[in-house]
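Write out this protein's structure.
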Amino acid sequence: MSAVAAAVQDRPRARVRTVVGAVVAAVLVNLVVYAVGRLAGGDFTFTRDDGRATVDAATVAGFTAVPLGAGLTLVGLLAHRLRWVPRVAAVVAPLLAVATILVMTVPVDLDAVSTATLATCHLTLVPVSLLAIRRLRR
């Protein structure tokens, strides 16, 4: 097998490694941010229709991994066919990270430390997603 053929064959693996690496990195960073928020006194409890609910570490991990993984997978699948997808994703990903703070975090009755911590978790997705999108563009 020629070097060119091997490189072409390895592209899907490289995309998978990029997506998985970005998701794992973001989850680990957000779990550290969450732990710091807990240590700073955040209780991460808010009111729902059926009572009180608490944001736990599993929720932080899931709300980090699922949307980031889905978005990056979509970019990875489309980027080599549609050259404009990574450029659009590089704009949409940060906008979604900030918008979800306004839609998901700010409206609930969390204490200030919990709100700041969860907002920071949303913002950590910006550099992670931009770096991953850049790698997927290649």
